[in-house]
Specification:
about 375 residues, 13 helices
Length: about 375
């Protein structure tokens, strides 16, 4: 509940209200910029979060403090370079747009990392409070936008407000620039997971990044609306990944029976969610996006199936991350990214936007199957050992 709340409010309340004040092309650009920030700033921040969680016991056992301030600076430098490059690539104009988008990217990255303290302590109540504050900030930012401000204020105020709450509860670790004997080992894990996470998030967000320069903002808007309900569910389930990782970080192994149980339950729930989405999507989209609902409905069955496959993968992913060789993350996500981009663009050429949607579904199917096979092979090796 705590982690799904900001996503649901953003997808079903904030963004539809922003869309009411923008035309199709302008809204498509907003969605593309948001996708860039979520893919890179939130992605890299979440990687640093996960590395801190996975390494926490080792640092405590050895009585070491440090390294993460250095990795934080490296991460935030990468986020700024990527954000500026993306805005330039999409030919975004206006000094204030650059400033506000950079501020937004930095706020998202920092919040995604520093919330790790609540996850390490399994303090789910404070995660709820943090995200309630974030939602309140979104609403304040939306009000500023409606009064004539830029749309970025919505995200900035929400993330900054929740970050202030986090830092009041947990101050910045000292020494910030501290370096330990584990720095090289931790840096390697950070680099590997950054590459794999960006590739993984690309399966969620690269659709907009590819479609905007090829088809324009209006088609991005139509496509986004067709994915809205399914993606809202899958993105809302994303923090389940972090929740499971926070639990698995404290375990040495996981039995095959438990793995099949997790896979079966998540698949069953997503199957139910799929049919509920198909029933509910048209009435809901008619309220949220009446201007694009008719065109979007053609793609809903495929895009919703893609979102459900993504959701199951999000549940399985932390199990593979915790118990299998970390390098498998790059193999899985790299292969699926290649299939996604190549398949989607080829099918887009022959079948239009529907072909693009099918390409995304195939890539997510391959990703899920690979995770299952890799875990089962790793489990067999552990049994022999």
């Amino acid at each position: 509940m705590a982690t799904a709340l900001p996503t649901i409010v953003l997808q079903l309340v904030i963004l539809p209200l922003i869309a009411q004040k923008l035309n199709g092309d302008a809204y498509g650009l907003v969605l593309t910029i948001v996708a860039t920030v979520m893919m890179f700033a939130a992605g890299i921040g979440n990687v640093l979060n996960n590395v801190r969680m996975l390494s926490d016991n080792e640092y405590k056992e050895k009585g070491l403090t440090g390294d993460f301030g250095i990795l934080f600076i490296i991460g935030i430098a990468a986020v700024n370079i990527i954000t500026i490059g993306s805005l330039w690539y999409y030919e975004v104009e206006g000094f204030m747009v650059y400033v506000l988008t950079l501020f937004l990217a930095n706020a998202v990255f920092t919040k995604e990392y520093y919330i790790v303290r609540f996850w390490i302590d399994l303090d789910y109540f404070r995660i709820l409070i943090c995200n309630l504050i974030c939602v309140a900030g979104y609403i304040v930012g939306l009000g500023i936008f409606w009064l004539g401000g830029e749309w970025q204020y919505t995200y900035i105020i929400g993330n900054v407000a929740s970050l202030i709450y986090i830092l009041k509860k947990y101050s910045i670790s000292k020494p910030f620039w501290g370096k330990t004997t584990l720095l090289i080992q931790t840096s390697k894990m950070f680099c590997v997971l950054t590459i794999s996470t960006i590739l993984n998030r690309a399966l969620q967000y690269v659709d907009r990044l590819l479609l905007y320069p090829m088809l324009g903002g209006n088609e991005v808007s139509v496509y986004y609306v067709s994915t809205l309900i399914g993606k809202t569910i899958s993105i809302a389930l994303g923090p389940v990944n972090t929740f499971l990782l926070s639990q698995l970080a404290k375990r040495k192994k996981m039995g095959k029976a438990a793995f099949w149980q997790v896979l079966g339950i998540s698949t069953g729930l997503c199957a139910i969610a799929y049919f509920v989405c198909l029933l509910a999507v048209q009435p809901l989209l008619s309220i949220l996006y009446p201007q694009w609902v008719e065109k979007s409905m053609h793609y809903v069955p495929i895009t919703t199936m893609t979102a459900m496959l993504t959701a199951v993968s999000m549940v399985i992913s932390p199990i593979v991350l915790r118990f299998c060789n970390v390098n498998w993350q790059i193999v899985i996500n790299g292969l699926c990214f290649i299939i996604y981009v190549a398949g989607s663009l080829i099918l887009l050429k022959f079948f239009g936007l529907m072909g693009f949607c099918v390409g995304g579904m195939l890539a997510n199917m391959v990703s899920l199957c690979l995770m299952i096979v890799i875990y089962l092979c790793t489990y067999k090796e552990m049994e022999r050992a």
